[in-house]
# Entry
Amino acid sequence: MYTCKNCAGNLQYDIESGKLKCSHCKSLFDPYEVSGGMEADEEQQYEVTVFTCPQCAGKIYSMDTQALAYCSFCGASSVLEGRLERMESPKYIIPFTVSKEDCKRIYSAKLKRERYSPDWLKDAEHIDSFRGIYVPYWIYNASQNGPVEVLATKENEKRIVEDNQEKIKGYSVYGDLKCEYRGVAFDASAAFEDELSEQLTPFDMRKLQDFSPAFLSGFYADIADVTEDVYMSGAKEMINNATTSFIDTQPELYGYHIEQVPYASDTYHTLMGKAELAMLPVWLLTYRKNGRVAHVAINGQTGKLAGRLPIDRKKYIGENLFLSLPIFATLGILMQFFNVTMSTLIATYMMAIAVLCVAGVYAFNIKKMWEIENLIEDIGFHAAKGKKIDVNKRRLDFQNATSIWTVGGGLLGFGAHIVAITFGTDGGLGDPETAHILLGLGLFFFAIAVFLTGRESFKEIYDSKRKNPFWWVLIAFIIELLCFMLKVSDIIRGTGIIISMLICTGAMLRLVRYHNRMITRTLPQYKYRGGLDNG
# Structure
């Protein structure tokens, strides 16, 4: 803790002035002057106080030596006793420029735009819970120098098919490349989610300053527990992709498109420099619900907001009902005005299509939610546990496993529909019922694409409760398909439509419930070092 040389008051970093400010006499001090005069070994380390929560065992790090009465992990009101410890100093820091009041305005504006957000999120006490945290990031630099040759294709050029292979004329593009990349950032904390970190970027790396522990006074900070090599390949891939995009946008290549560059690091002569650790400013809002915590983050330099908000199911149901009623009423009036009638057969067909859409949306979102909730693709989280995960390979394996169903079923479904629509209207298929059968087959092939892909999506998900609504939607589709294919009464078809609508509504409501669970985490969540709720 730094004290004022005039009155011995507590010094905290003041965002508005960019200096340390005395809480008593309001004197201002330069952070580097306050922390100056350190020995050579002290420049590599600085002293903090380690606090441990008696309830969740979470550790909190602070520049202050006074005992804390609040745990930032679980929100427990317990007295946390601390001990002194020395920490490694990072290379750079970007001080906070967005104040706590700015955060509250940004967050409140976000809530106003979110129609389904619960009212308790708008509570003044909740919004006042923002805390300033310095999150460690690895800063990667790279250079690319030398002659390059890449392949380009001409836009809108006709493709030729020979020997069952599609061919297109390629053009070699030559040139000398000289690129310098500075400030490619990846978070170095296993506790700070990769997805949240990516949403917060970019930071303006031109504002990097040499680190001084005085900047942390009045704020929290997170620990760097992910090594620089974990994100090295990701940083290199990002840099190579940026170079490809840069070449593609050159005026001399107007009308041409640069194809994907294999072995891009060799082609572009990419040379990665040594990664350097920097502390970047983040405002974090943590809230607790049903024994779980969730968070919203705001970039402490740019004010960019990241994070997901829960959905109020009552608002979701009420607003959708309120909007759907006038829509159906308007359609009914228009159909009467133009003397248009809709048979139960057509309504059944349309309901079958709607059920397939619901199934696809449910399977995709449940898979994505499960991955986010369990940090399946969080590279830093797994690296801290000694595991290595290849996100690109994982996604490619899923595409390879599902492509046969999505492509095959989709093409067969569209083909059956095209034949039925093209030839069925003029009797070209002979029996008029043939077009009806082909439309049913088209629905069946679409169902193969949707439900087998969905089954593949659920292979990793161990929670059977999340799978059940998907299979109920399958039952709804079978009901609609049978009602469409068989000669049944209008009453049976109408009953089938109502049953399917109820099943699909239940599935979407269950999706909302899982969304609310996805955005929360089990306790404890973070490992902080830091200070007061400044701003």
